């Protein structure tokens, strides 16, 4: 028996185009397209990619419910046994679309769905409890590793085989606990791990804890009347045309922009570079993300002394935590050197 697989990809991997084609509506093509060729090879004779659904990332992000419904109807025509989406790697909008499609497939079609993403892709946090997401590297360089892992996992699900742990199968932890019986009591296992740690031997914890940075808040500003306030954003606001070419996802840089005498971020002069949310309203009025207009009013009213004459901007969508820390430290050094009192940090 050869299982029937429908593959979901975005406009880029379909070879249609990049951001300039990100608004294309869903379409379905018979057989394999783009990375579907690698998927076909990884599935071997056990499954066939019968069709490929393609949708622009921006169109899906702006019309999620409608696009999901359209795509499900397209998939039904091919009577799939399972759906594979992506891999999306660290592309935020693509990952979100893959997650939404797979969740809809599981709920409405009742068949297995598998995708592949980098752990920091926002689609992981949003959808990891709904279906299995194979862990991938952060870029398409990892395609050769991602596709076989996705194919292996979807075949196991189709055959009804018992899955092992995330480490064994290569999928991202879903936050779902399952009971398991051990020969040793928990206290004995804990002592064994502790002894191994003391002796410098390898061990694997049974319940890894998440690690979060704890940043103590600074004291409140005591003298707002004499304060200089700066604006920093991860919402991607930048001058029209994105002169620094800040990436729509996985940003490798931030921008520094002068707003001396600027009272309003109009659509003629400012836009957003962000690719992880519907940019329509931010492009119409960038003050919705970076409230220069309101702060100018407050400055005029004497709520604080001065609005700093520059703002700093990057894109938080899929950006690595290490990069974000680096950006933050560098921006903070600049602001401190210029005597800024406090910062208003805006997102999306």
Secondary structure blueprint with pairings:
Elements (H helix, E strand, L loop, with lengths): L2 E8 L16 E4 L5 H8 L3 E9 L1 H6 L1 H13 L5 E8 L2 H17 L4 E5 L4 H6 L4 E4 L7 H17 L6 H4 L16 H13 L29 E6 L3 E3 L15 E4 L11 E3 L7 H5 L7 H10 L4 E8 L7 H17 L4 E5 L2
Parallel strand pairs: 1-3, 1-4, 4-5, 5-6, 7-11, 7-12
Antiparallel strand pairs: 2-3, 8-10, 9-11
Helix pairs in contact: 1-6, 3-4
Describe the protein in words.
The chain has 348 residues and is α/β, with parallel strands linked by helices. It folds into 2 domains: 3-169, Response regulator (Rossmann fold, 3-Layer(aba) Sandwich); 224-346, no CATH class. 33% of the residues lie in helices and 19% in strands. The protein has helices spanning 36-43, 57-62, 64-76, 92-108, 122-127, 143-159, 166-169, 186-198, 280-284, 292-301, 321-337; strands spanning 3-10, 27-30, 47-55, 82-89, 113-117, 132-135, 228-233, 237-239, 255-258, 270-272, 306-313, 342-346. The strands form 3 sheets. It has a 6-stranded mixed β-sheet with strand order 2-3-1-4-5-6, with helices on both faces. A 4-stranded mixed β-sheet has the order 9-11-7-12, with helices on one face. Strands 8-10 form a two-stranded antiparallel ribbon. Helix 5 links the parallel strand 5 (113-117) and strand 6 (132-135). It is flat.
Short description:
The protein has 348 residues and is an alpha/beta fold. 33% of the residues lie in helices and 19% in strands.
